[in-house]
Amino acid sequence: MEIAGFIVKKAISALLQPLGISLILLFTGLIVWKVKHWSRRGAALIVAGTGLLLVLSFPITSYLLLRGLEAQAGSYQNPASLEANGVRYIVVLGGAGSTDGLTPADRTGPSIFRVLEGVRLWRGIPGSRLVLSGMGFPLEANVPDFMKALPIELGVSADALTIYASAWDTGDEAAFLAGLVGDSPFALVSAAYHIPRAMRQFQSRGLKAIASPCAFMAKTPPPLYRYFLPDGSALLGSQLAIHEYLGQLWMTVRKVAL
Q1: Model confidence pLDDT, tens digit, residues 169-200
Q2: What are the Cα distances from residue 191, in Å, to 46, 69, 126, 130, 213?
Q3: Using CA of residue 146, residue 205, residue 172, residue 216, what is the dihedral sign?
Q4: DSSP letter string over 47-89?
Q5: Per-residue pLDDT of the chain (258 residues; tens, 9 = 90+)
Q6: How far is residue 94 from each of residues 28, 118, 165, measured CA to CA in Å?
Q7: Which residue in 186, 194, 182, 121 sits closest to 154, CA to CA?
Q8: What strands lie across the sheet with 161-167, from one edge to the other?
Q9: If 0-12 CB within 10 Å is exposed, 13-18 middle and 19+ buried, where does residue 176 land?
Q10: CA–CA separation, 93 and 252 (whole Å)
């Protein structure tokens, strides 16, 4: 049941993403347009689906959506400041490691910027511990040895590493860390767009997380001439941002319901 619930949650989340909503509108419009003999309602749904996909693929749309999240995340952390605040744990969320026959950097994939930022902070805080957390769901399982590979190659001692490869989501990561760090302050490293939601989840458990964002995607706006030129990376940015906003909304709804 737990796996089924996880899959259902992911499926609903996917359908609420820009691509999912656009496809629903398009397919519904096509069906209505055909069944109702080229009805205006069907045509309107087709236009709405196409228009939504188009608008969300504009670089300016992606920038504005991501900028709101990254502004909440703050800026890069200074290791000296973290050390002065008693930080001894550097926690990197989403430190993935695949089993493919690739170099440690390539195996880390999109998480490489988070791992690099974690190593940077670890280097600046003598005696600190680097904690890597990644998904452990069977369809996208991590292997601890592969998660360790890049940090070790970058000079992190194996003795200074803790790997948690069994998380299904950020909530699982927060539960694990509650037992690891207790009430000690720690640096929470994640992509800037993800930091606001992650901080809410960790703080709701009484954890003393200090936001340590990285991998900024909206530090500067796109060039004026690209504002309205559809782009695949912009659509991805919009999708990532909307996923985070929906996640924050869900957390608020659950808090109110409880």
Answers
A1: 777 778 888 888 888 999 999 999 999 999 99
A2: 34, 10, 24, 17, 6
A3: negative
A4: HHHHHHHHHHTSHHHHHHHHHHHHHHH--PPPHHHHHHTT--E
A5: 456 655 666 667 666 777 888 888 888 888 888 787 777 888 888 899 999 999 999 999 999 999 999 999 999 999 999 999 999 999 998 755 566 677 888 877 778 999 999 999 999 999 999 999 876 555 455 566 778 888 999 999 999 999 887 777 777 778 888 888 888 999 999 999 999 999 998 998 889 999 999 999 999 999 999 999 999 999 999 999 999 998 898 888 877 766
A6: 36, 11, 9
A7: 121
A8: 161-167, 129-135, 89-92, 186-191, 209-214
A9: middle
A10: 22
End-to-end CA separation in angstroms for the chain: 22
Closest by CA position to 187, among listed 78, 112, 97, 94: 78
Read off the amino acid at residue 138.
P
pTM assigned to the model: 0.87
Q: What one-character DSSP code corresponds to residue 222?
A: P
Residue 115 near residue 93, CB atoms below 8 Å: no
Distance, in Å, from the CA atom of 223 to the CA atom of 214, rounded to the nearest integer, reads 22
